[in-house]
């Protein structure tokens, strides 16, 4: 594995590792953006209105159980005849990744909205806040930790599953796995697996950092912990 990763020949050209990483990221981030656009508003609507809760327990769990590779091949057979270009293969891959990423974002957004303290909502109503202002100023900020946790989980699943794009001759780090298996080059396969794992770990830490920066300290208990730590500091008293 180390010989493969440190070979300069594998870091240049269209099949070089940097280009494969870039393709993998493009697939992953586009799928995440589409998933968030679908799942966050839907989760907010279900959480606020209480309508469509069956989607959380039924549809979301059903999507998790879909066989990714089988669904990908089926979608390629259905869609590729309508798109003679490369889009006939990219679109099925994105659909599979979106279906995989929607459930964690949807369920966490719904759970976050429902977990908001009813007293806070009642206080906002008492101050004259309208429904939309309550949502934007109270419910969404309070539910942000759970929403971001769902996004974080979805991105990790997308990055690890985007390797299947190589199964239908697309790019990404899955190429190292597919090509390595075809050539019986196990060092190439291990290198691909390691790079995917490292990418997932890096983005997990990036999203964790973003969460710490944009979520209110009161919701993450950073303020409480800081105060508790300050209380434990012993100040020496001079006689």
UniProtKB/TrEMBL annotation:
Keyword annotations of the record: Membrane, Transmembrane, Transmembrane helix, Transport
InterPro entries named in the record: ABC_transp_perm/SBD, MetI-like, MetI-like_sf
Segments passing through the bilayer: 25-50, 62-83, 89-106, 154-178, 190-211
UniProt xrefs under Pfam families: BPD_transp_1
Membrane topology: Multi-pass membrane protein
Domain annotation ABC transmembrane type-1: ranges: 21-207
Annotated Gene Ontology cellular component terms: plasma membrane
GO biological process: glycine betaine transport; transmembrane transport
Annotated localization: Cell membrane; Membrane
Main subcellular location of this protein, as a coarse class: membrane
Family: Belongs to the binding-protein-dependent transport system permease family.
Name of the protein this chain belongs to: ABC transporter permease
Species, as recorded: Pseudarthrobacter sulfonivorans
């Amino acid at each position: 594995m180390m010989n493969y990763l440190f070979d300069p020949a594998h870091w240049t050209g269209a099949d070089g590792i940097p280009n494969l990483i870039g393709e993998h990221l493009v697939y992953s981030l586009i799928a995440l953006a589409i998933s968030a656009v679908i799942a966050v508003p839907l989760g907010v609507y279900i959480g606020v209105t209480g309508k469509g809760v069956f989607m959380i327990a039924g549809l979301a769990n059903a999507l998790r159980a879909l066989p990714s590779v089988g669904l990908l091949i089926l979608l390629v057979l259905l869609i590729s005849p309508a798109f003679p270009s490369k889009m006939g293969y990219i679109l099925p891959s994105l659909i599979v990744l979106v279906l995989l990423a929607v459930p964690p974002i949807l369920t966490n957004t719904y759970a976050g909205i429902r977990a908001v303290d009813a007293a806070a909502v009642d206080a906002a109503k008492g101050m004259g806040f309208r429904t939309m202002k309550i949502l934007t100023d109270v419910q969404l900020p309070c539910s942000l930790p759970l929403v971001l946790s769902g996004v974080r989980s979805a991105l990790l699943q997308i990055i690890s599953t985007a390797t299947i794009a190589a199964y239908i001759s697309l790019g990404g780090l899955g190429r190292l796995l597919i090509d390595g298996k075809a050539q019986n080059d196990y060092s190439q396969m291990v290198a691909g697996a390691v790079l995917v794992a490292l990418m997932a770990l890096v983005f997990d830490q990036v999203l964790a950092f973003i969460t710490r920066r944009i979520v209110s300290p009161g919701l993450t208990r950073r303020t409480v912990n800081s105060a508790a730590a300050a209380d434990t500091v012993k100040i020496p008293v001079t006689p």
